Amino acid sequence: MFRDNFYKVEQDWCRARGMNYMVHLNHEETMTSLVASEGSFWRDMRFVGVPGIDNLNQIRPGIVADFPKLAASAAHVFGHPRSGKRKVAALTPPVNSSSIISSSAASTT
User: Fold this and answer.
1) Which helix (H) or strand (E) holds 44?
2) How many CB atoms lie within 10 A of CB 45?
3) In this predicted structure, what is the pLDDT of residue 22?
4) Which residues pair with 86 in a beta bridge?
5) Hey, how many other C-beta atoms are within 10 angstroms of the C-beta on 37?
6) Given strand 84-87, what is the order of strands in its sheet?
7) How many Cβ atoms sit within 10 Å of the Cβ of residue 13?
8) How are beta strands 50-55 and 22-23 bridged, if at all?
């Protein structure tokens, strides 16, 4: 129901206007969270013109991150020529709030 009444409607609207429809689902980096939040990744991606993923600092050294393959696989399975990803704060070390406080205090003295 969600696929047909949301993703398909948006894809049809974009296609009618000559635009690509790119979207990612919530929690695609953790399959159990994705299923709880969105249901079937494959069902939802069927009508997305450019299947995507969102990288919010989940990809970094020492982390097994295979979820970016989902977007490329969905594009391949459903015959779409492209996939995409949104990268926000990717490949950066986690922020240490104590170092920000220390450097802020040092700059005001």
Assistant:
1) helix 41-45
2) 26
3) 85
4) 54
5) 12
6) 22-23, 50-55, 84-87
7) 11
8) parallel
Identify the DSSP state of 4. I
| Phi, psi for residue 82 in degrees, rounded to 5 | -135, 160
- In the chain, the DSSP E strands lie at 22-23, 50-55, 84-87
pTM: 0.62
Cα gap 16→63, rounded to integer Å: 41
Q: What are phi and psi of 94, to 5 degrees?
A: -60, 145
pLDDT (tens digit per residue) in 5-56: 888 899 999 999 999 888 887 777 777 777 787 778 888 888 888 888 877 6
Which residues fall within 8 angstroms of residue 84, CB to CB, at 6 or more apart?
Answer: 22, 50, 51, 52, 53, 71
Which tokens go with 80? 């779409």
**Extents of the domains making up the chain:** 2-108
Residue 62, Ramachandran bin (φ over 0: left; ψ between -120 and 50: alpha; else beta)? left
Return the H-helix or E-strand segment holding 36.
helix 31-38
